[in-house]
Amino acid sequence: MTTDAKTRMPRRGRALTTGWVRARLPLILLTLLVLIAAVIYLMPLYWMFTGALKAQKGIMQTPPEWFPVHPTLENWQNLFSIRTISPWAWFKNSVIVALGTVAVSVTLSALAGWAFAKKQFPGRELLFFLILATMMLPSQVTLVPMYLFVRKIGFYNTYIGMILPMALYPFGVFLMRQFMQAIPNELLDAARIDGASEWGQFWRIGIPLSVPALSALTILTFFNAWNNFMWQLLMAKDYKMMTLPVGVSYLALVPIGERALLDVGLLMAGGTFGAIPMILFFLFFQRYFVQGLMMGALKG
After folding, report:
1. Where among 42, 74, 106 does a domain terminate?
2. How far is it, in rounded angstroms, from Cα 263 to Cα 247?
3. Residue 188: which pLDDT band, with cuts at 50, 70 and 90?
């Protein structure tokens, strides 16, 4: 092999490497940005999880203790041993409220979305516009009227009072309407010819074809119901009716010994106890969530 040929081969290799890097540079930069964003978003969660295994001194020291040098379960023992609080009762309340909200909200959203997508009636567009308009209002605007109304009808400090106001989900109606609009009307015409009733068309055609949207709506509704704080704070009269987010906030008022001191470790243990079910729920249903959003985008 001549000297020129030997010289050209390394140059060609360097050119190929440079070309590969240039072609992949946008993807590499995007991946780095995503990793940095993931670390930033996960840092508070990591700090809470590790703080639940640290003593008060390890949490508050400067510079911070990034890893539990002397891990302890004292915070968890305190969480489940204080008589004035009941974390398992808060967990039960959160499960009841979240599942009840999902059942009512998804049912109403599916029915309303079907009506707005496939039925013709006077004032349909105006009514749909008014429902969308409620999405533009901050939730704080409706807190006082809803609170007064719920107290007036006798549902204060009850599961019904916690569930029903949260079950009216305008975004759910919008999502189901947009998704169901893509269902071919020819299928409904064929079902009518075969003798299917209005309910049969909805149950046998609309629901099976809308499973991706229903899955995404179920997960979103469950998240909102589980993490809701302000409304459940207004509805809970005593410790036994509190949900996990509200109960964890009350841990700051638990006295330590004879002094009322803010126990940060106890708060982090309570926050971890409340976050674990949501993380497991999302990990289990994330495939359905992503599938529902992608199917909705493709159909839109």
Report:
1. 74
2. 15
3. confident
189 shares its domain with 152: yes
Full-model pTM: 0.80
Provide the residue range defining the domain that includes 148.
84-299
If asked whether residues 116 and 169 sit together in one domain, one would say yes
Question: Which CATH number belongs to the domain containing residue 136 in this structure?
Answer: 1.10.3720.10
Tokens of 22: 């240039």
Give the closest residue to 174 by CA, choosing from 126, 117, 100: 117
The number of folded domains in the chain is 2
* Residue 67 covered by a domain: yes
Q: What value, to the nearest 5°, has the Cα angle with vertex 250 and ends 95 and 65?
A: 100
pLDDT surpassing 80 at residue 154: yes
In a domain, 79, yes or no: no
Using the predicted structure, report yes or no on whether residue 237 has a pLDDT greater than 50. Answer: yes
- 16 and 99 both lie in a single domain: no
Structure tokens at 270: 């309570």
